[in-house]
Write a structure and sequence with these properties.
- It is built from six helices and seven strands.
- A hairpin with a 3-residue loop joins strand 6 and strand 7.
């Protein structure tokens, strides 16, 4: 009897171009048979990679801090506070909004009714009709007119800078102060400190901040400055943002344009090799006050 023939099995050959991918297909199929191990491996790889990146970033930050330490001035920067010169105002009478009008000091009055001459033959001036004396209500100027004031600025007893960029009606003649304060003062209460450091803070309080900043209801900007021997600020480092990128840029530009007092001899010696950072964190508060 003839033995039964085994069924013939047709074997499909893989094209030569795809043959390198056959082992990969088998490996991938084996991985999918255990998805938990597959996805666990992916998560573990990502976690390990993130940890390595974090370590490198921390090391880079430490390296930057160490590099910055060599660029910090070795000084005790302790600014005081100068009280602004002015009239004391009863707290109950201080308006809710303090607005000072910009004024320019009046030109000195050089006119004189009695003129002296050495000419013995000079005839006396003819009698002038008497004029009705009018009470002079204009305050005499205590300063020389500021040539930088814009034409049309109101003439008054002294030069004043407005504390607002808008044409709001003034509510006070001058900001509250102390009769024994300083003409360059800016604070409400006096505080002792290093004269040069106090001068630096005073210069920053006079920096010109664009009117955009005055529109902010609140804002705090903390920064550090890098200074040079000639009193210029070469770099501003933001330590705390106001939360408004545009305002931050305006403040940085205003600080960089500020000219500070020339550093004393012990500080100037450290600046011979280049510009360095003051070891102090300045704080600008909305309204233009720097501490």
């Amino acid at each position: 009897m003839n033995e039964p023939r085994e069924a013939e099995v047709q074997v499909r050959t893989v094209p030569a171009l795809l043959s390198p991918f056959v082992p990969l297909k088998r490996e991938f199929a084996d991985i999918l048979r255990n998805p938990l191990a597959f996805f666990g491996g992916i998560v573990g790889t990502l976690a390990l990679g993130g940890a390595l990146v974090a370590v490198f970033m921390i090391n880079d930050a430490k390296a930057d801090d160490e590099a910055d330490d060599s660029l910090i001035l070795d000084i005790d920067f302790n600014p005081g506070a100068l009280v602004r010169q002015g009239e004391k105002i009863d707290p109950e009478q201080i308006p809710e909004k303090l607005i000072v009008e910009e004024t320019v000091a009046a030109e000195p009055d050089d006119s004189s009714s009695d003129k002296v001459t050495t000419d013995e033959k000079a005839k006396p001036p003819p009698d002038q009709p008497k004029k009705t004396e009018k009470k002079d209500t204009t305050e005499k100027s205590t300063q020389k007119p500021d040539p930088n004031k814009k034409p049309g600025t109101k003439v008054s007893d002294k030069n004043r800078d407005s504390n607002t960029p808008y044409n709001d009606l003034p509510t006070v003649k001058d900001l509250p102060g102390d009769p024994f304060g300083s003409a360059d003062g800016w604070a409400d209460m006096a505080k002792d400190g290093d004269p040069w450091a106090t001068g630096v803070v005073g210069a920053l309080n006079k920096m010109k901040v664009p009117s955009y900043a005055a529109q902010q209801k609140s804002g705090v900007f903390q920064f550090q400055i890098e200074i040079c021997a000639n009193g210029t600020i070469s770099r501003v480092t933001t330590k705390k943002s106001t939360g408004d990128g545009q305002l931050d840029k305006m403040l940085v530009a205003a600080v960089e344009a500020t000219k500070i007092p020339l550093p004393p001899a012990e500080v100037a010696k450290q600046l011979k090799g280049g510009c360095k950072k003051i070891p102090y964190k300045f704080t600008w508060k909305n309204g233009g006050k720097v501490e």
